[in-house]
Amino acid sequence: MKRIALITGANKGLGFETARQLGAKGIKVLMASRDKVKGQEAVNQLKSEGLDVELLQLEATNVDHILGVKDFIASQYGRLDILVNNAGIIHPDEPLGTNTSESISSATLAETFDVNFFSIVKLTQELLPLLKKSDAGRIVNLSSILGSNTVQSDVESPYYTVKPFAYDASKAALNAFTVHLAASLKGTNVKVNSAHPGWVKTDLGTKNAPMEIVDGAKTSVSLSLKEETDFNGKFMHLGEEVAW
């Protein structure tokens, strides 16, 4: 029986490439996209490559969409094996190379957390009953090394001056969710881990990033596979642990 994966933000960038790589391993991939047109274009592309993929519309902050996705998966498949919480934003009011902690607005903080944290917690909680029906459920939370308080407090770190506060804080909060959920799921068949994909050539990472998308997706793919992930509650990048 094919394993079933749901990837959010799967119409482009890391989400799209993660869908491609998981699909190439024989996994049925449900590609969630906020934009139905762009999502269908992405699905059509991967179908043309012979992969078993399907479109689900999901606006991350829309509770009705979240509940609709849960009901669809429950009725069509009865379980979920892999959840990749890939969708995320950096707010246009937050230049990546600046420290916004003295000036960030409450509105920007709220919008960033709505997408990067609150919606992920809600979606994950709703899908947990389906993940627990898997023989080896896997949850992957797409974080960032910018969410590492260890790295951010290290004056010798190359990331020390990169401090878009809303984005960094939302990823630190997501890491806390990983740690707490991992403890809650201890003793079950479900493992949850955070992924640092690297600085990747995506819309968020910009063309100046050193990593190609195909390599940026590898951490999420590895953490999705039961044969490669028997650990729980870790922060990983290409097989190596990242400090919280």
Walkthrough of the structure:
Helix 1 links the parallel strand 1 (4-7) and strand 2. The chain has one domain (4-241): Rossmann fold, CATH 3.40.50. It has helices spanning 13-23, 36-48, 63-76, 106-131, 149-152, 165-184, 213-216, 218-224; strands at residues 4-7, 28-33, 53-57, 82-85, 138-142, 191-195, 235-237, 240-241. The protein is globular and about 50 Å long. Helices cover 41% and strands 14% of the residues. It has eight helices and eight strands. It is α/β, with parallel strands linked by helices and 244 residues long. The longest helix has 26 residues, at 106-131. One of its GO terms (molecular function) is oxidoreductase activity, acting on the CH-OH group of donors, NAD or NADP as acceptor.
CATH A-level architecture: 3-Layer(aba) Sandwich
Report the radius of gyration as a whole number of Å: 17 Å
Number of domains: 1
According to CATH, the homologous superfamily is NAD(P)-binding Rossmann-like Domain
- The assigned structural class equals alpha/beta
Average pLDDT score: 94
- Quote the beta fraction: 5-15%
What's the tally of helices?
A: 8
Q: How is the CATH topology named?
A: Rossmann fold
Largest sheet: 8 strands, mixed
Distance between the termini: 36 Å
Percent helix among the residues? 40-55%
SSE topology string: EHEHEHEHEHHEHHEE
The number of strands is 8
- Uncertain segments of ≥5 residues (pLDDT<50)? none
Main sheet: which strands, in order across? Answer: 3-2-1-4-5-6-7-8
Q: Could you name the CATH class?
A: Alpha Beta
* Backbone shape: globular
GO molecular function: oxidoreductase activity, acting on the CH-OH group of donors, NAD or NADP as acceptor
Keywords: NADP, Oxidoreductase
Pfam family, one: adh_short
InterPro entries: CBR1-like, NAD(P)-bd_dom_sf, SDR_fam
